[in-house]
Amino acid sequence: MFNDFYCKKIKDLLNLYGIMQNVHTFTRCNNMSSTLVDYVLSNFSIKTEVHDIPKITDHSIILINIREDKPKSTKTIKVFRNLCELNINNINLELINCNFLLNSCNIDVFYNDFANKFRNIIDSVAPVKEYELNSDSVPWYDYEIKCKAKERDLAYQAYNKNNNPTNWENYKVKRNIVVNLLKTKKRAILFSKD
C-alpha cells in the first residue's frame, strides 16, 4: 500500500515542502490492535500529546500546542509633555505674570533668568511624563502604515461630512492601500522569521 503510485506522490509532495507527521504514539486502541491513524502535519515542529481520557470513541484525543515560546518583549520608554492647547494657554498666562530681569545690561544674565523661569513654568504646567510602549506587539505596524491609516481616516471623515460618492471612492482606495500594505508587511515579517 505504501508503495502505491498515489501514496508515493503524496509522500514526495510532503517531503518537498518539509511537512512532517507530529504524532508519534498510537491514537486508536482497541482489544485487538493499536494503530496510529490520526495525523497532525506541519512544516515546523509542534508539541503534541495523545490523551486516552476522556474515552468518547476508540480514538484518543490529540492536544496540539503550536504557540512558540517567545522571548519577553522589550519595552520602549517614551518621554513626553502634554502640550495641549489648554496647557499652552496656561503657560502663556504664567509667562505674562512672571517678572523677568528686563533692565539687566548683561545678556547672559537675562537669558539664564528667562530660561530658568520658562523651564520651571513648563515643568509645573506640563511635567515630563513617561510611558512604556510594547515594542514588539505588532512589529509590522510601522510609521508608513500609521501615515496611510491617518490618510484613510481623513478620507472617511470627508465622506461623512457630505456623503459625496467621489469621497467614498477615495476612501475605498485609501482603505485598500492600508489593507494591502498591512498584508505585505505582516507577510514579510512572518516569513523572515523562518
Which properties best describe this structure?
8 strands; two-stranded antiparallel ribbon; 3 domains; alpha+beta
What's the short version?
It contains 5 helices and 8 strands, in the order αβββββββααβαα. The chain has 194 residues and is α+β, with helices and mostly antiparallel strands.
How would you summarize the topology of this molecule?
Elements: H1 5-16, E1 20-21, E2 28-29, E3 34-35, E4 41-42, E5 47-51, E6 61-65, E7 75-81, H2 85-97, H3 107-125, E8 128-134, H4 143-162, H5 165-192
Antiparallel strand pairs: 1-4, 2-3, 5-6, 7-8
Explain how this protein is built.
This protein has 194 residues and is of the alpha+beta class. It folds into three domains: 5-65, no CATH class; 75-134, no CATH class; 143-192. Helix content is 47%, strand content 16%. It has five helices and eight strands, in the order H-E-E-E-E-E-E-E-H-H-E-H-H. The strands form four sheets. The chain has a two-stranded antiparallel sheet. Strands 2-3 form a two-stranded antiparallel sheet. Helix 4 (143-162) runs antiparallel to helix 5 (165-192).
Tell how many strands the DSSP assignment holds: 8
Shape: elongated
SSE topology string: HEEEEEEEHHEHH
**Could you name the ranges where pLDDT drops below 50 across 5 or more consecutive residues?**
none
- Assembly state of the chains shown: single chain
Fraction of helical residues: 40-55%
Beta content comes to 15-25%
Number of domains: 3
Radius of gyration: 32 Å
Q: Tell me the major beta sheet.
A: 2 strands, antiparallel
Structural class: alpha+beta
Number of helices: 5
Spatial strand arrangement across the major sheet: 1-4
Average residue pLDDT: 82
Distance between the termini: 35 Å
